[in-house]
Amino acid sequence: MTKNLASNRTYAKRQLYVQLCGHALGVIDTETYEKELLEPLLNFDHDPVPNVRLLLAKLVKNDLLSHEYFGKHPRVLRSKDKLREDPQDIEVVRFFRTDEEVRDYAKNQSAKKKIETREKVESDTSEDEAPTETTQSADNTNSVVMGSTETETMEIPVTSPETEPQPEAEKPEDDVNDGQN
Question: Are residues 113 and 133 in the same domain?
Answer without folding.
Answer: no
